Amino acid sequence: MITRNSWGSMPDGRTVDLFTLTNAQGMTASITSYGAILVGLTAPDRNGTMADVVLGYDTVDEYINGRGYFGAVVGRVANRVSHGQFELDGVLHKLPRNKEKFQMHGGATGFHSRLWEAEAEKTMEGPAVTLRYRSADGEEGYPGNLDAEVVYLMTGAGLRMTCRARTDKPTVVTMTNHAYFNLSGDPGSDILDHVLTLNASRYLPTDNDQIPTGAVHDVAGTPFDFSRPKAIGLHIDADHEAIGIGQGYDHYFILDGDIGEMTPAAQIFHGGSGRVLEVCTTQPGLQFYSGNHMADRINGKLGVMYGYRSGFCIETQAYVDAPNRPEFPAITLRPGERYEQITEYRLSGK
Questions:
Q1: Which residues are catalytic (predicted)?
Q2: What are the CA-CA distances from residue 136 to residues 166, 223, 224 (Å)?
Q3: CB burial class (10 A; 0-12, 13-18, 19+) of residue 309?
Q4: What is the pLDDT of residue 281?
Q5: Domain range summary for the chain, segments of one domain joined by +
Q6: 71, 107, 181, 280: which could form a disulfide with 140 (CB 3.0–4.6 Å)?
Q7: Do 216 and 257 contact (CB within 8 A), yes or no?
Q8: Contact 150, 74 (CB under 8 A)
Q9: Vertex 264, ends 262 and 265: CA angle to 5°?
Q10: Is 261 a catalytic residue?
């Protein structure tokens, strides 16, 4: 089932729509045309009781004026681009910095802050909404007119997100969704008791600005070892240099698997509710963020006050700062090529 409703307007008067997709199991996903934001996603507990498991706001005005990228699609380049610049084919491209020393998540007016064209349809696999946005040549410093597309599809197991893009000039692109999850059904609580497993034996250490140094470290014997199920809070404040830099977990993990193939990435289990989130992706890795920089009191959906570490992010994406690291897999997109990456969020209760 699909519903579409007007959900307010942009400051310039353009209408913002909200789509709700419902599968046969009764799970729902709500997506808005502003920022291609995942506004809500319900999942069953062990007794079949549904609850919204993503953090966010009640109104589009709060998304426009709020912080944190709640549920948004970010791009052109997710995460950090060091020094706010990169070189491509011998040409230096300078990007507006929205952080002191780097550009973050595509810049201040990246994909998260744009109104996307949207249309919904019923498919053989389930209800879907397709969102499209043309990022103009030079927008936030990036070369080429980029035609971006995000498809949210509600399957029987949960939500599938497919990101695609084409360009008319060589450019760089890696998109992700910045949803904050809390599986407990109590979004005002922290996520330290959630049990995380990552299919990743390596991670990227960073400098003090959280820019990768270019090194690749093994997780074995460190607080970053989630190869076996472990509570997020167990080592989150460990005496470890990388933990100190991130003030907890805010690091890129390299997935064990073939790049471009759908690979199990993460499993998160909340014992109190029995909810399970499984993330699979074609991306080479993910940024795991434990909500360390969330303000103490954010007025979220239904008047709930979100606190410190009340949500975690599993941001599937390319290697951080790839445009400036030739040793990392490239994220260059050229005319005639198509960027396509898929991430699935599979939800269940046990």
A1: 178, 315
A2: 12, 42, 39
A3: buried
A4: 98
A5: 2-349
A6: 107
A7: no
A8: no
A9: 110
A10: no
One-letter amino acid for residue 27 of the chain: M
Tokens (6 digits) for 115: 């109104």
The residue whose two tokens read 């699935």 is: 344
Q: Is 80 annotated as a binding residue?
A: yes
Please tell me whether residue 113 adopts helix, strand or coil conformation. Answer: helix
Is residue 178 annotated as involved in ligand binding? yes
250 is in an annotated binding site: yes
Q: Is 315 a catalytic residue?
A: yes
Write down the CATH number for the domain with range 2-349.
Answer: 2.70.98.10
**In 3D, which of 80, 71, 39, 70 has the Cα closest to residue 246?**
80
* 202 appears as a binding residue in the annotation: no
**The pLDDT of residue 296:** 67
For the sheet containing 250-255, what is the strand order?
217-218, 200-203, 250-255, 285-289, 313-317
Geometric angle at alpha carbon 271, from 268 and 184, rounded to 5° = 75
Q: H helices of the chain, where? A: 60-65, 241-246
Which residue type is seen at 212?
Answer: P
DSSP 245: H
DSSP per-residue codes, 293-337: T--S-EE-GGG-EE-TT--BEEEEESPTTGGG-TTSPP-EE-TT-
Query: What are 244's two structure tokens?
Result: 């100190």
| Burial call 88-124: b when 16+ CB within 10 Å, e when fewer | beeeebebebbeeebbbbbbeebbbbbbbebebeeee
Q: What is the pLDDT of residues 253-288, one digit of tens each?
A: 999 988 889 999 999 999 999 999 999 999 999 999
Distance CA 271, CA 34 (A): 34
Which of 112, 178, 251, 270 is labelled catalytic? 178
